[in-house]
Amino acid sequence: MSQLDDFESVFRAAVRAVYAPSPVTLARVLVVTDLQAVRADAYGDRARTFLAGALGSRPVRWRVTSAEEAVTVGDLLALVDSERPDLVVTYRNLHSSAWRWPYTLGDHVEVLTQVTDVPVLLLPRPEHSALETGVAHTDTVMAVTDHLAGSPRLIDWAVALTHDSGHLWLAHVEDATVLARYLDIIGKLPGIDTQAAGEAIPARLRKEATDYIESVRGVLAASHRELDVRAVVTEGRHLAVYKGLVTDHGVDLLVFDTKDDAQVAMHGLAYPLAVELRGTPLLML
Predict the structure, then answer these.
(1) According to the model, what pLDDT value does residue 83 have?
(2) How does DSSP classify residue 95?
(3) Under a CB-based contact definition with an 8 Å cutoff, are residues 257 and 267 in contact?
(4) For residue 134, what pLDDT is reported?
(5) What's the DSSP call for residue 249?
(6) Rounded distance, CA 164 to CA 139, Å?
């Protein structure tokens, strides 16, 4: 390595991404159901209960739909366009019997998450017992990504939906399979110390995520003094690690990105997470 390259590396290593929060507006919430009026209102009440700790006393306009509304995907998109909600609350497989088979989110939810910019809070279906008995708060929220420093909006929303005195987990998980592949390639290139690279690259990835989390803590310490911000920085097989984290930490709400600027389909790990974690409320951005 030349002295110029060495200097440039040191300079770049000193540059750190810093969390810059943006305000989250939560004045209008749209609850979309395919239930008859009485059951739809009951589901809307459950959604209010779930978000009560996070929303506090702030004024929120709620609109709950029943089976006669948003029957088609086009109807749903038109409804969102007319209502202009800050948040849509719904569940999997609207207007479909496919919920009996745990392999899909249904057309309504899949299109909604990709076509609109409105965050979607995916709660368990009405048939799911967890919504009846176990899940009624957002005391423990986890934001998950493999690129935490590039996701300030993810953190903004996770903070907004965490109870003021709750626990916010910021989880950064490097894909172990991808990392192993690149380290294998490095091992085949002459002039690069394979052992040093195998130690330095994972350490650097962890350090960048950890440094960013510390910047988040610094900002939130001033604006959300009672909020307990915790960190998980690790590597592994994404889906297995995230499922384990949700269980181990008793997560009430999981927050993750669903959009990818380079494609129409749902972002990376978002779809398998949304399909498999059927009993866990999910905020899909």
Answers:
(1) 97
(2) T
(3) yes
(4) 46
(5) T
(6) 8
Q: Domains plus CATH for the chain?
A: 3-284 (3.40.50.620)
Tokens at 242, concatenated: 């995230």
Residues in the chain where the model's pLDDT stays below 70: 1-16, 128-136, 260-268
Tally of CB atoms within 10 A around 116:
15
The pLDDT assigned to 63 comes to 97
φ, ψ for residue 128 (rounded to 5)?
A: -80, 125
Q: What are phi and psi of 119, to 5 degrees?
A: -60, 145
- What is the DSSP code (8-state) at residue 244? H
pTM for this model (two decimals): 0.88
Q: Which residues pair with 173 in a beta bridge?
A: 234
pLDDT in tens, 177-220: 888 888 889 889 888 888 888 888 888 888 999 999 999 999 99
Residue 254 DSSP one-character state = E
SS3 129: helix
Residues 209 and 147 sit within 8 Å (Cβ to Cβ)? no
Helices of type H across the chain = 3-14, 37-55, 73-83, 107-115, 129-133, 152-160, 176-186, 194-223, 238-248, 270-276
